[in-house]
Design a protein that fits this description.
CATH topology of the largest domain in chain B: D-Maltodextrin-Binding Protein, domain 2
Oligomer: heterodimer
Radius of gyration of chain A: 25 Å
Structural class of chain B: alpha/beta
Strand order of the largest sheet of chain A: 1-2
Radius of gyration of chain B: 21 Å
Number of domains of chain B: 2
Helix content of chain A: over 70%
Largest sheet of chain A: 2 strands, antiparallel
CATH class of the largest domain in chain B: Alpha Beta
CATH architecture of the largest domain in chain B: 3-Layer(aba) Sandwich
Shape of chain B: elongated
Distance between the termini of chain A: 52 Å
Number of helices of chain B: 11
Chain lengths: 318, 282
């Protein structure tokens, strides 16, 4: 009897157990799906409800509007007003500006650090640097934001004479600090994943360490580095607390990086808590949430895609 | 938690004392916190009574009063003519009692030579018509605007009282909380900000003139409660008719020195003693 303990009654148990574990695995996926459905559902009235559309239709969010008779048409985000204005363009511009600065700041530093630790650093040095950079990822963004608000803004203003203390550069640099560990980790992994046989071949051909790194390892790992950059970009777009505190949150249309910006994520964080439930403003905030969700989802998907392609290539599957 | 406590209290009391007074308070989001504190303190002293406080905005509260679904409406503005008329049509006679005061200070950097501004100048500055300090008699420097997020009562109050409901300039940088505004202005020589009274640390309060000819007044507890500081307002409770019984006891307690001290604890400004006494229901 003992021998057949798992048969035949336990077939069912096995089946249930397996499905249960599968369900656990699916839970995250279902969670994301439900979250997306919920967010999108709250944004739907923008497309269906006449009354909401009068205040905030898709075209009103995209194009210049004449809000008061006899005044110039403009893009404006002023949801609490006698004439509520829901132009998304200033917010979009702010989001992109912050992310661009973050990338300009973070990519050279993170990639440089990755090249150094994976190619040139001694073992001890690597064991020292890697955890420290990765520790940055654990830094709460509210702490980084506060640092940018109080310290970094003053330093930048004193050094470069900015008119506006809180601006896209200040927020972007702080964002960059948050993004560095992401890019660094992925890029470093990609370089380490370059097969030893390739390096050995290069060395055998008489290449010095610089030549090995820059003509051999770097090109081979480039897709991985690109994936890191893309994932970092995704984080820079979605990051909230840092921009909320360090950017000044003024929704303006301007190409200058020395002026204040307002991002999608900071707008949601700042306004959702007190918005009238079910109002057009509420719907618009959820619409912004949907946009952010789609942006970051697509960006992360792209990053993963590049990463998988790289793995296949390095393993000689394609 | 506090609201939960109130609800739990409500349920318990409903079981124990069938005759207990059950009071609902609804309205202004600016006043929710104060209403809740008052309710808690009052219930501590009067275990038999049950008070439920909720927000939603002054307009919501007034609508609830007109529809007869609340006993007390909290409002951060006086009722409008139109609302009085609506109430009359429904057989409601609103009775207004000012219960506390609220004021907003304008902050400037300590290095800024400007010390006083008129309400008109402030409006010009915050709507973006005046963009340079020299236009108000200061240095030839760009004015850097700081304000609160649009979900804050302070934002709405300033917009209403100083900007006459016009929009803030798009360039206004909004920060989470008065502390952040004060911090920003303290570090920005050409900055200007606004926020609650008695917050100015590391920045200076700007004296405000009602118009060109009137005297400049600094925001203090005294000038606000004395009525001379221009950016201040009364906060009201509205009842249906002159309150009696439990309602009367509650409003008189809120106006008592004890109730006014609670208001001060949660950063509102107490009414001057004589006004508070005058406002009490006989």
């Amino acid at each position: 009897m003992e021998k057949y303990r798992f048969k035949p009654k336990s077939r069912i148990r096995e089946f249930i157990g397996e499905k249960f574990i599968a369900l656990n695995a699916l839970a995250a996926l279902i969670g994301i799906l439900l979250i997306f459905i919920f967010i999108f559902k709250e944004a739907v009235p923008i497309f269906t409800d006449r009354e909401v559309q009068e205040e905030a239709s898709l075209s009103k969010m995209l194009y210049k509007q004449v809000y008061y008779e006899g005044r110039e048409p403009k893009w404006s985000w002023q949801p609490i007003s006698t004439v509520p204005k829901y132009s998304l363009l200033p917010l979009f511009l702010g989001t992109i500006k912050a992310a661009i600065v973050a990338m300009l700041f973070a990519v050279p530093l993170a990639v440089g650090a990755a090249i150094y630790t994976s190619e040139f650093a001694s073992r001890r040095m690597r064991e020292f640097i890697k955890p420290i950079i990765e520790l940055l990822a654990g830094l709460p963004s509210v702490v980084l934001g506060f640092f940018a608000l109080v310290v970094l803004a003053t330093v930048l203003q004193k050094s470069f004479g900015f008119t506006f203390r809180l601006n896209a550069i200040n927020a972007g640099v702080a964002l960059g600090i948050a993004v560095i560990p992401i890019i660094f980790t992925v890029a470093e992994d990609a370089m380490n994943a370059v097969p030893k046989s390739l390096r050995d071949a290069a060395i055998a051909l008489g290449a010095n360490p610089w030549q090995v790194s820059f003509t051999m390892v770097l090109p081979a790992a480039l897709p991985g580095i690109a994936a890191g950059v893309v994932l970092g970009f995704g984080r820079a777009i979605g990051e909230t607390m840092i921009v909320l505190m360090a950017s000044g949150n003024a929704a303006i249309i301007s190409a200058r990086f020395t002026e204040s910006i307002r991002t999608f994520s900071a707008t949601i964080a700042a306004e959702l808590a007190e918005v009238v439930f079910g109002s057009p403003h509420y719907n618009v905030l959820f619409f912004i949430g949907t946009l952010l969700f789609i942006f970051t989802f697509v960006i992360n998907l792209g990053g993963d895609f590049i990463l998988n392609r790289l793995k296949e290539r390095l393993q000689g599957k394609s | 938690m506090k609201r939960l406590a109130i609800v739990v209290g409500l349920v318990l009391a409903a079981f124990s004392i069938a005759l207990a007074g059950n009071i609902t308070i609804k309205g202004s989001d600016t006043l929710v916190r104060l209403g809740q504190r008052w309710a808690e303190e009052y219930m501590k002293g009067n275990p038999g009574s049950v008070i439920q406080v909720s927000g939603g905005g002054s307009g919501t509260g007034i609508a609830a009063l007109i529809n007869g679904t609340t006993d007390i409406c909290q409002s951060s503005r006086p009722m409008k003519e139109r609302e009085y008329k609506l109430a009359q049509d429904k057989g409601i006679t609103p009775h207004e009692v000012a219960v506390a005061l609220d004021g907003i200070a304008v902050f400037l950097n300590e290095k800024n030579p400007i010390a006083e501004l008129t309400l008109t100048q402030l409006k010009g500055i915050y709507t973006g018509v005046i963009t340079n300090w020299k236009e108000v008699g200061g240095a030839d420097r760009r004015i850097i605007l700081y304000g609160r997020e649009n979900n804050s009562g302070t934002y709405a109050f300033f917009k209403e009282h100083v900007l006459n409901e016009e929009d803030y300039a798009d360039q206004t940088q909004t920060l989470p909380g008065t502390a952040a505004v004060v911090n920003a202005v303290s570090k920005d020589e050409w900055g200007i900000g606004y926020g609650g009274i008695a917050w100015a640390k590391g920045v200076k309060d700007c004296a405000v003139k009602k118009d060109d000819t009137s005297q400049a007044v600094l925001p203090t507890m005294e000038t606000v409660s004395g009525g001379s500081y221009p950016i201040s307002r009364e906060l009201y409770w509205y009842f249906n008719g002159v309150p009696t019984g439990e309602l009367k006891a509650l409003v008189n307690w809120a106006l008592s020195p004890e109730g006014q001290k609670v208001a001060e604890e949660v950063d509102y400004i107490p009414l001057p003693k004589d006004v508070a006494e005058k406002n009490m229901i006989e």
